[in-house]
Write a structure and sequence with these properties.
It is built from 20 helices and 26 strands. With 760 residues, it is an alpha/beta fold. The strands form seven sheets. A six-stranded mixed sheet has the order 11-16-15-14-12-13, sandwiched between helices. The structure holds beta-D-glucopyranose. Beta-D-glucopyranose is lined by residues 114, 158, 211, 290-291, 498.
Length: 760
């Protein structure tokens, strides 16, 4: 399956010559220390004309066979610093050759692409990866993606997407790691490490891009591209934290968000890109705009025209413009007329050149595919299968319906639009994902049961949105003739992702009706749901006996799901995001504030129970909805197992700790069930009193541990007092003295509690 080894034949000799030149250059310039790179950056910068500098700040889109002819002249003239969306190693190598050999200064290109959760071999969507709570598998998945993407000449991916979101309506929630700053940060770091590898110059290491800076996940009503309003408190304590973690992990680039944030669209937002990113965090990579988001500043109404937009974005700190070319057209004039300082431009170009040096592109701009592993090799497939396996969350399992035992079954009914949908199971943002590689649940189950058990399949609906119920009778008939019904429901991949937000997040089409009808057969019903977001499952949750929530599980989703259904492995995914009962509860998230009137089971009144003539009083009332209460359908961190986990003996070794000290905590975890299983042990804290109010719980640690049946294991955590720091009233990071509560358990709803104190 390896794509053709390098390049266009006519180019071979030139390339060889290129490699030889590179070898010499390489020898002379092997010093990759910061000082050496800074020296090379400033030498190069000193030779550049203003037009060449602005050229580096210009990223153009190009795809297809005409790319080389189309871009040749601009690259020769030094007008292009980066291209995106060209996925053809021969063409990329030729463009690199033109850049290196035919432009005056020979500066290689950054070659970008959205490799979000896999290239040809596809991991679960990032939200699913987050449900694994396993940074190791996320890192490995990104590694696989980088190695595959590199075969196409790609040296830069626009990932990880690390926008925190508390809104399941937002289609792009699929692309991120959920609602919690700590979990998202851990995953962000893992993904950056996976893409960039230990050595950025090594074949198969590609630059990562943390996006979208910042606050994009807070778009109003979950409508993509809409306005965001995020207070500085929320920004610093939540939305910015994963970006800080990515910067600390050495991410090469960041991407500015499309959205208006507190009145200044992110692409023109100096506070974010200059004050926070550069001055406070010391980031020295570069920032790319989002697609045409510089020119969109005028559509937002921040600027009057493209010229002003270029000025605003460059002033605010967008180093490279993706698409749009307003930089190319206007920055030279803006420098000439003194609107923008050449020192500002120099610093921005230096950021870009620095990244190119760090990637080793000056030493070797070319891709030699013979040094890269095959696409979809055994390791790649095993990695994405393991990720899928660990990402599936068992939401409910009444009467131990699962796992199924083939020995006790004669027949299985497989019903639903997503049982055999190779493309849909890949999820959003799979520009290059190969549907031919997908193994669907239907294929995997048939394979596993091999004729020992009869498997009958009724698709029942063409798409998840279908409102044609003609095939439902057949589905009921097959269900009646089977021992168990496996219903594959959810959303197609196109219903989530960029620009695909929904206001109603129930199962679309007539799926709830299909569930109701199939239920009539009176057989155990297991729902396997594939979706790009949390869904409000309130209308089906009581109609089925068990639910596996599988997100869009990627290439090997089928075998992973089959292994879980039949107990080869136990489910171990945990929700990285809260599932609401109803859309009206959004935003709903576990780390809420207490409020002055915190709700409790005792204070909730249901709308049906209110006496018609009850007096209009707030006495004794608390923060809940009359029709939804205050609890979610499924809480953050929730996820069931075939193991039976008991937590006990929670102990804080040093319940009084000084600032700068380390808190040591442990708990005994027993598996009293019959199945070996992984459990994700979660640690939460509450800072009882703060100079700003603190959430009722905050995740501060987690560990995935394997526990054999009958085994008890001690799970230890260490928490530095810095881990308890927060941004206070003056937006400075502080750790306050005082009392804390600490919980450990298998979900954010755990009530196993201990206490500790930070003392002087
Ligand atoms: C998206 C980015 C993406 C870019 C390039 C934009 O529409 O918001 O996330 O990287 O396109 O494809």
């Amino acid at each position: 399956m390896r794509p053709e080894s390098s390049t266009i034949p006519a180019l071979r000799s030139t390339l060889l010559a290129g490699f030889l030149v590179c070898l010499t250059v390489n020898d002379a310039m092997a010093d990759m220390s910061d000082q050496a790179i800074e020296r090379r950056v400033s030498e190069l910068l000193g030779q550049m004309t203003l037009e060449e500098k602005v050229g580096q700040m210009n990223q153009v889109h190009s795809e297809g066979p005409s790319a080389v002819d189309h871009l040749r002249h601009s690259i020769q003239s030094g007008n292009i610093g980066s291209i995106l969306n060209l996925v053809d190693v021969g063409a990329v190598n030729e463009l690199q050759r033109i850049a290196v050999e035919e432009s005056r200064l020979g500066i290689p290109l950054m070659v970008g692409r959205d490799v979000i959760h896999g290239f040809k071999t596809v991991m679960p969507i990032p939200l699913g990866q987050a449900a694994s709570w396993n940074p190791d598998i996320v890192r490995e998945g990104a590694r696989v993606a980088a190695l595959e993407a590199a075969t196409a000449g790609i040296n830069w991916t626009f990932a990880p997407m690390i926008d925190i979101s508390r809104d399941a309506r937002w289609g792009r929630i699929a692309e991120g790691f959920g609602e919690d700053a700590y979990l998202v940060s851990e995953m962000a770091v893992a993904m950056v490490e996976g893409f960039q590898g230990q050595d950025l110059t090594a074949p198969g290491s590609i630059a990562a891009c943390a996006k979208h800076f910042a606050g994009y996940g807070a778009v109003e009503s979950g409508r993509d591209y809409a306005t965001t309003n995020v207070s500085e408190y929320e920004m610093r304590n939540y939305y910015l934290r994963p970006f800080k973690a990515a910067v600390d992990a050495g991410v090469t680039t960041l991407m500015a968000s499309f959205a208006d944030i507190n009145g200044v669209p992110a692409t023109g937002n100096e506070f974010l890109m200059r004050q926070v990113l550069r001055d406070e965090w010391g980031f020295d990579g570069f920032v790319v705009s989002d697609w045409d988001s510089v020119r969109q500043l005028a559509i937002h109404g921040l600027t009057a025209n493209d010229r002003d937009s270029a000025l605003a974005a460059a002033t605010a700190g967008v180093d490279m413009e993706m698409f749009g070319q307003s930089y190319l057209q206007h920055l030279p004039d803006l420098v000439e007329d003194g609107s923008i300082d050449i020192a500002t431009i120099n610093a921005m170009v230096a950021n870009i050149l620095r990244a190119k040096f760090r990637l080793g592109l000056f030493e070797n701009p070319y891709t030699d595919t013979s040094g890269l592993p095959e696409i979809a090799n055994e390791h790649a497939l095993a990695t994405v299968q393991k990720a899928a396996l660990q990402s599936v969350v068992m939401l409910k399992n009444d009467h131990d319906t699962l796992p199924l035992s083939p020995e006790q079954l004669d027949s299985v009914a497989i019903i639903g639009p997503l049982a055999d949908a190779p493309y849909e199971q890949l999820g959003t943002w799979i520009f290059d994902g190969d549907r031919e590689l997908s193994v669907t649940p239907l294929q995997a189950i048939q394979d596993m049961l091999r004729k020992k058990v009869s498997v009958r399949y009724v698709r029942a609906m063409d798409t998840s949105r279908s409102r044609i119920s003609e095939a439902f009778d057949e589905a009921v008939e097959v269900a009646s003739d089977s021992d168990v019904v496996l219903l594959f429901l959810g959303e197609e991949s196109i219903l989530s992702g960029e620009a695909h937000s929904r206001a109603d997040i129930n199962l679309p089409g007539d799926q709830a009706e299909l569930v109701r009808r199939v239920r009539e057969a009176g057989k155990p019903v297991v729902a396997v749901i594939m979706a790009g977001r949390p869904l409000t499952l309130t209308n089906i949750v009581d109609q089925v006996d068990a639910i596996l929530f599988a997100w869009h599980p990627g290439t090997m989703g089928g075998p992973a799901i089959a292994d879980l259904l039949f107990g080869i492995e136990s489910p171990s995914g945990k929700l990285p995001v809260t599932f609401p009962r109803m859309v009206g509860q959004i935003p709903i998230y576990y780390n809420q504030k207490n409020t002055g009137k915190p709700p409790s089971a005792e204070t909730v009144i249901h709308i049906d129970d209110i006496d018609q003539h009850a007096p209009q009083t707030s006495f004794g009332m608390t923060a809940f909805h009359l029709d939804a209460g205050y609890t979610p359908l499924f809480a953050f961190g929730h996820g069931l197992s075939y193991g039976s986990f008991e937590y006990d003996n929670l102990r804080v070794e040093n319940p009084e700790v000084r600032p700068g000290g380390m808190l040591r905590v442990s708990v005994d975890l027993a598996n009293t069930g019959k199945a070996a299983a992984d459990e994700v042990v979660q640690l939460y804290v509450r800072d009882l009193v703060g100079n700003v109010t603190r959430p009722i719980r905050e995740l501060k640690g987690f560990r995935r541990v394997r526990v054999e049946p009958g085994e008890t294991t001690a799970v230890d955590f260490e928490l530095h007092t810095d881990d308890l720091a927060f941004y206070g009233r003056d937006h400075k990071l502080i750790t306050e003295l005082g009392d804390f509560h600490l919980w450990i358990g298998g979900s954010s709803e755990t009530d196993l509690r201990a206490e500790f104190r930070i003392v002087e």
